[in-house]
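Hello support,

Our group uses your service weekly, and this is the first time we've seen a run hang past the timeout. The protein is Isopentenyl-diphosphate delta-isomerase. I'm not sure whether the cause is the sequence or the server load. Input pasted verbatim:
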Amino acid sequence: MGNHHVERKEDHIRIVLDRKSSQSALTTGLETVRFLHNALPDLDLGEIDLSCTLAGRRIAAPVLVSSMTGGPVRTAEINHNIAAACQALGLPFGVGSQRVALDHGGMAGLGPELRRIAPDVPIFGNLGAAQLRGDDAFDMARRAVEMIGADALFIHLNPLQEAIQPEGDRNWRGLFDRIAALAETLGVPVAVKEVGFGLSASLCRRLHEAGVQILDVAGAGGTNWARVEAARATPDRHALGATFADWGIPTAQAIRQARAAVPGATIIGSGGLSSGLDVARAIRLGADIGAIAAGVLKDAIASQGDLEARLSAVVEELRITCFCTGSADLDALRRADLMPDQLPPT
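Update from on-call engineer: The timeout came from a worker crash unrelated to the input. Re-ran successfully.
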């Protein structure tokens, strides 16, 4: 089983890098959010404050390097590059699913060295919701946090991916109650994220009422995991990818709906973000943090330096957006003027 999981993770990276095989047929909707240009900002660009707090730690900018995946060799390399780059820039990051490392005893870059590399920034662990069914699920969650010194634990929701994956977990009965119980007992914040099809407003509300304080909407418009799984499946299942190529709640709509539904939650906006301007758009729509995954995957594989340069560019794009909207900080950016009729529908 271990080798099979490893091969699947390697397939995921190969297919995600081939955007033609993995991209959603939908757009994120973020492209419809156009800021009103301020030609005379009363600001010093260098003094714009992008800092904020996430999972109890101060971060330099609201840019999360979101969960990525891969087989043991690649996972170690990717996670070490991410940890080092994020520590250098003061940015948070989340690891890919820790299931393989927990089930089969290999660290695969998911050990205590991550916290040694990145002692000062928030680290999010990661387990699939389907892993919460077992009798040892809460112990597994605790070990997932401890093995990397995580500040919070992502529970990812991927029912469509699991339904299309030939070996997927299809019994999701009772998982909401398991997530609620975990949120009460884990000891660090439980964060819930989709993987690219969006969290609805009603689910965000139910999760928040159950004690989940951090919600990553992970909307549609970026990587489509139905297409990814169909691409690696047998030919008779390839058509499923096309059937669900435009499935999901576009990212912009998911962010607005989540913020309206749970004004007190920490909202992470992800799903197809690729620039600092996209992060600014997500924040303007109601997100506290913008998250990028596939958009920096190639850089994370290449080297720490490549990733650090890419993330520095994202932060600089966000800072320039603030400058050209007259926003001295993130609170001001949330109120920045938009071009008329530029908000996406709720």
